[in-house]
Amino acid sequence: MRNVSIVDIKGKLAEQEANALLRDTVDSLLAKNKKKILLNLAEMEYIDSSGVGELIQSLKAVENLGGALKIVNPNNRAHNTLSISLLLPTFDVSKNEEEAITKFAE
Fold first, then answer.
1. CA-based nearest residue to 63, from 25, 90, 97
2. CA angle, corner 30, sides to 26 and 34, nearest 5?
3. Domain spanning 5-104, CATH architecture
4. Pairwise CA distance, residues 15 & 65, whole Å
5. pTM for the complete prediction?
6. Calpha distance 69→73 (Å, rounded)
7. Minimal CA–CA distance to 45: which of 67, 74, 7, 85?
8. Are residues 72 and 40 in contact, defined by beta-carbon separation less than 8 angstroms?
9. Among 25, 45, 59, 62, which one is least packed by beta carbons within 10 Å?
């Protein structure tokens, strides 16, 4: 898998605890020098503005260390939220893991 770390986000990315869990997960991967991170949003039920903020902070943290963070399988709710907030172009979004993993090699 070309050293890509896949993080499955399930449930809500809205509550402080969920946001902290994402932050801690990304920080832990970066501490292990794992800089290719793929967030799978297929089972994410809900995202609010704080969750979107956490996605942006995670993206910045990874990019500041020379890595890449990508999104795969955004469900309709996640896709719409990122689109409405005009942040969809900020992220590299793929429809499936194979496509996303290939993009890390580019």
1. 90
2. 105
3. 2-Layer Sandwich (3.30)
4. 26
5. 0.91
6. 14
7. 74
8. yes
9. 45
Residue 2: the pLDDT is: 64
Are 52 and 82 in contact by the 8 Å Cβ rule? The answer is yes
- Which pair of tokens denotes residue 75? 């469900």
Cβ atoms 67, 36 nearer than 8 A: yes
- Please count the residues of the chain: 106
* Residue reference for tokens 């939220």: 81
Q: Enumerate residues 6+ apart whose C-beta is below 8 A from 14.
A: 46, 47, 48, 50, 51
Token pair of 85, please? 């907030």
